[in-house]
Amino acid sequence: MYLNLIQLLRDKNYYSAKIIYRSLIEHYLKSQYLLSNFDKNKNLSFDYHLYGKIEEFINDIKMKNLHRSLKGMDKLNEWELVKSSFPEIEFKTKKDLNDEIQNFSIKNIIKKLTYLFKEYSQIHDHFEIITRDYWESSMFVHGNPGANDFLIKSNNQYNEDEILDIYNMITIPFFFIFDTIKFILYHSKARFSLPIQNENKLHLDLESLVPKISKKIEYLKEIE
Questions:
Q1: Which of 25, 85, 129, 204 is most buried (CB neighbours < 10 A)?
Q2: Banded model confidence at residue 32, pLDDT cuts 50, 70, 90
């Protein structure tokens, strides 16, 4: 996906690049949220996959019912189909199920990560930039008016603001990796009380890579 992003920028396809970039950020945010589970008795990853599948299943039923209504056919019983297809939620109410699904909405994930990263400043360095870029890129995914305005103004030359934005799109994914590795270290120590040998050295090694990535000119050459 990252290589596709680079190629789109080389091709001056800024609009499509923003869509790919937003997808990269969403993958990052969800992975950070799953790693943020410090409760030994809760399997957040399992819940994410279960309720994610249920949400997709419900959306599929809704689309089928829309199609059936256009044909004058009776609607499918959404709740009964969900319960019969997912016995794991047999004793949950509709509200319980909806609450579980909403736990993994992107708005809820960002809200919880924002609260968490206030306590872990070591992995908060780039979070504000990442969330800002996420919301700004969303208008391209949804075809909002702001994205349409960009298309009208767009040409084959990047302006100064776009160049800075491109720099972020190229470099921020590297910080995804750094932040995730650091988060895994802190998570392992906090949840499982695991001793991490040479933790300080590894942390310093990761931080030493940042200046190398921060050489804007070298990275901007990637899209020439």
A1: 25
A2: confident
For residue 141, give the 3-state DSSP assignment.
Answer: helix
Compute the distance between CA of residue 157 and CA of residue 134 in angstroms, rounded to an integer: 23
Q: What is the DSSP letter of 126?
A: T
| DSSP 8-state assignment for residue 92 | -
DSSP 150: H
Mean pLDDT of 146-166: 64
In the predicted structure, residue 219 carries a pLDDT above the cut 80: no
Q: Which of 98, 101, 80 is nearest to 90 (CA)?
A: 80
Pair 22, 143: CB distance under 8 Å: no
pTM equals 0.73
**Token match 């991490």: residue?**
196
CB-based contact 100:51 (threshold 8 Å): yes
**Half-sphere exposure (Cβ direction) of 10: Cα atoms closer than 13 Å:** 11
Residue with tokens 């297809």: 85
Q: How far apart are CA 54 and CA 124, in angstroms?
A: 32
Encode pLDDT of 60-78 as tens digits.
999 999 999 999 999 999 9
The alpha carbons of the chain give a radius of gyration, in whole angstroms, of 21
Whose tokens are 């279960």? That residue is: 50
Average pLDDT value for the chain: 78
The CA distance from 162 to 18, in Å, is: 11
User: Does residue 87 sit in helix, strand or coil?
Assistant: helix
